[in-house]
């Protein structure tokens, strides 16, 4: 039987985010692009639903059904549940991933021990090799940046559970910081705001819809409007209310104000030699919140350097993981090549 080369092996790209998990299998395409949530039976521990199907149960639980979130605010909240979540998805493609090489995007907040535990769990499914890479680095690669060159790039990934700022150069993360000022915290602040000002109680999913509908960092000629549905705290009856972008303007300003502090912290910790690269290349913004109108102008006005919001902002990390195949193979060959003895 002919030996299978690394290039002939199937490549699997995995990006586990707080809000979304994306899995791409070579020759099959994107096999999973759904919510990072799993529904199980409390008594039997049996998996009832996963992904978007499980998300449909949010706020509608009954009986023994319980919802589990493997990731919260950019960190692993339950390693056992995360392993079950990934195994449930990947076992459907057991034959396709057998002997595969995997590029796994991990938040910088995930510890070395947690990374090793994830690698072991994925290897148990029959894959050949798992390469773990920082998600912010893969996001820049997915944005079309050649991360292997000795040029410094400042990346800002605006995710759901956390935001990450990092300087990437020569294929590695030079310095990075992360913050919980992100999509989920913005949703929670919207919930608190409506409860305090309008005496209406809404859920997280409704808050997310409000954020996605009327968030903007620039003044618009006509106000952005949306209808929010919840319960009146006074009467306990269902209630709807019309909101405009002005209603959540202060919340957004607070979130992005924290992000400027995050970027400043990364710049302060970076080597002086990279300052010129950052000024020339500017800030590369990825992640779901990057699509909020005015993000580019907000950061350009504050830092006075170029800012690029990539077109595939929400999918940049998984796109980078897919594009990382050759680099994953190179890394494996370097770390597993036999060391030659040198005679003196």
TrEMBL record:
Cellular localization per UniProt: Cytoplasm
Taxonomic placement: Bacteria, Bacillati, Mycoplasmatota, Mollicutes, Entomoplasmatales
Name the UniProt record assigns to this protein: Rod shape-determining protein MreB
The keyword Metal-binding appears for this protein: no
Family: Belongs to the FtsA/MreB family.
BP GO terms, sorted: cell morphogenesis; regulation of cell shape
CC terms in the record's Gene Ontology section: cytoplasm
A Gene Ontology molecular function term of the record: ATP binding
Keyword vocabulary terms for this entry: ATP-binding, Cell shape, Cytoplasm, Nucleotide-binding
Record has DNA-binding as a keyword: no
Pfam families to which the protein is assigned, alphabetical: MreB_Mbl
